[in-house]
Amino acid sequence: MIKPKAEAIRLSKMLSAIYKDIEERFPVNVEKLALEYTPVISPGSYIADIKDISIHGFEGCLKSNKAGTKWLLAYNQSHGSPGRVRFTLAHELGHFMLHRSLQNNFECTERDMYDWDSPYLTMETEADTFASYLLMPLDDFRQQIYGTKMTIELLEHCRKRYGVSRMAAALKWIEIAPRRTLVVAGRDGFLLWARMNEASYKSGAYLSTRKTTVEVPGQSLLADIERTGGAMSRISDARIWFPNEPSGMVIEETAISVEGPYPYVLGILQLPDIGWDSDKEDTLLEPLTSLEFVKK
Description:
The protein is an alpha+beta fold. Helices cover 36% and strands 22% of the residues. The protein is built from 11 helices and 10 strands.
């Protein structure tokens, strides 16, 4: 069985050996990679064409001809975000690299593309993992964030460097976040999904959106940004999101309004470590005079 991380890392090393100039290396040209590389590794069955198919609700697909000799990779340009399109292309390339022997037609909806932790969509989550590691190699990603905390500016830097959406960059960062961290997406006052790192989950600071409807707390920054738009970070009482956290515990909220055909608010929630000492964090509770703003 081909492992998605291992396969993406292998391709990333190949691209790094070919492209020494960082401007050529990133963002990854997925279309060129698919059209030029797949015939080399699979001359009898390869990706022969890439097309834009703008249909409402359609995200992307990978489909072979009847003979199984040529594949079409399709995507939806009408979603507007180049980062989202690049991730879709990488996701479908992942299906080819990992799953082409299993079936000859892969059709992906918006939910499939971002249903990261579903136990029922193994091939979809594997294709997501492949795309993430191909577009944002972990060694290079670590170098970009080394010694810094996640801020709106850093998220923007990663988004531009790798040519991905803010959501994809945030979800990548959570893999190596140094403290308890969650990434959430909200729309119309409710969470669409939530993902957390292991430290957050084990401490009980988690949000489950698969079987229950989770309302965005009215006092949260996520709720404020949904009303006003824009982007912002602030320090809040952790119990706004997690009532079981101890009194005085703080949470750093970052929320960004994402526009487009499927608008939502992206949230990053950062909690101190389990051994947090309130006496060491008093400065976080001072008046908020240095909030970070980004225009829509």
